User: What shape does this take?
Amino acid sequence: MNWSNEKCIDFYYGEYKQGSIFGKKSSIKFGIYPSYLEGMGFDFYEDEWSNDTRPFKIFFDDIKKLYVDKIHKELALIIEYDTGSVVSSKNLVIVLPGIVDIQKWFDLTEKVRNQYIEEKNRKQKLELEIMEERNKLEKEREEKALKFYQDCYSFHIKDTTPVYPFFSEKNRIALIFIDEDKALNFLKIDGYEKEETNGVIAYNNIHYYEKAGNVSYTTDIHGNYSSFGGSMTGGNFSKLAAVGGGLLFGLMGMTLGAALTYKPSEQEPVNTSFSIDSDIKKIDDRSVILNFYSDVKKQYIDIELPQNLYNFFQTYLPEKKYSIVNELEKKAVVHQSTDRIENGSLLKVSLKPEASLVESKEPLKTSTVEDFKQKVEKLKIMKEAGLLSDEEFKAEQSKLLEMI
Assistant: This one.
């Protein structure tokens, strides 16, 4: 009947005969353990004993009163206790009559019980001290993290600074902001890790931004449940965003690429579903493509950003919108080409101080490939703009073919 690994301190066994000389004999058992009592005794309810003894196990924490008194003219050890149940608490009484040298067993029980209470109080005090120390350290950690976070944030971000947060929680943030020089900054602050990383794309290196992707609709068939109100799901990763973000922050020596990634969102209209029903889901996988020149890679790079950044860029970098940049570049090409037509130097871009690609009869070198591409593009734009006749276009085209 011992349900624990505790070693028994002392144990009593005897018999008690109720009533007359021919009365029924019942077993009386009483074991003392470091944290509980265990044995066989009579239930006592409404001034009556039970017909026979029953097994019991009573933890010291559940004992309400322990004493020696006479019940029905019999000296007995009496234990009042509750069940210790969270569901229901009920006061019970166990009676142990006929114990030989009952005072000795009472005194030993009280001694063990007091030792248990003292040890329990000691442990509780120790746990409280440990908890207070942990709270103190946690408070210091929070204060240091908050100070680091606030110092870094206030250094970069002013009241008038345009900010777009990707991720934010207590003393941690990842965001994009535009500084006073209109440069695009990717900032990550972690107050707990004392980490601050800031990648910058200079304003002049920002080529353009544009919205890319599609909006599609799909039918979702379901049944056996009801739903009320609209919902939106999503917010994890798109593979392209992960690659683009990682590339950007890899070049800048940062680790924030994952903060720029997202999962296409699904928007559901308000609906109520019965046994079998269907919904039309809107799947929006549009994103923002940012094209910029990398001083490290010496080339233009595309990265994918969350679609909500489009409005942020339109507000604070409207002149970098793709359609505007494209139109300005076309106008610049047409203007430069018009000047060359008037000066008789169409398609003659200098490769060296005193030479031009048109005049050179040497094979096209690697260093002149970019100039060649520019000439082809300009020639195409001029033809589309109506600045060259078909004959002029074919003539200039032949000159380019001679260079290959």
In short: The helical segments are 102-156, 239-251, 309-316, 322-343, 369-384, 390-402.
